[in-house]
Design a protein that fits this description.
By secondary structure, this protein is an all-alpha fold. The protein has eight helices and no strands. Helix 6 packs antiparallel against helix 7.
Amino acid sequence: MKRGSFSSKHGSEMMQQPQARSFSLVLWLLSTIVMLLIYPFTYALAGSLLGGNPMLGAIGSAGFVGTLGGGTQALLLRRTLNVPAYRWLFATMLGWIVGWTTVSLFVVPSAASVFYHNAHDPNEILLGTVSMYSDEVMFGVVAWLVVGVAVGSCQWLVLRGTFANASVWLAASAVAWVGGALTYWAVEQLHGVGWILQAVLDTVLAGMVIGLITGMTLKWVAIRGSG
């Protein structure tokens, strides 16, 4: 009886590990990059359709992008890691809405207030671009961190039902989005590049950073933490 139980458990683990290893990091990267690329356009479109209200624009665009990207990821995760597809889709959509709405309500007004103050304060003006860049980086990192925590927390609620060590996902999501923010800002400092190419390049590279960190973490969680 014990031998049969051990064989059944061992066979289950052997079946799950190849599934985890078949997880496509490339497809995960592409879905992350596409989500970041289309968000600014959907934000502008949603804002115009909803009367120019930034909060409604954030909710509408985040809901659309979260649903589209979350659905794509859900199909990938269901096929390779047995993660419930509809739960992942809903969690991703909710995380994007909560994250970007929070940014619109709190981070953006705070940033606007600081930038306005700096632009009219003689002491700040004398500091030149150093203060401006530091504020830009700070608020950019905070905004992306908020989104990363919101999305990661919602997705963690799904992963914890499948993987025993899913809590790693919370830290990975936060680190990934902060890394993406810093990458985005670093590319923004390039000179001699057309604004269209730069806009695409910074978003793609930021998406690659986020996708690599979260994708590799997800694969590690699946292989090491089945439960």
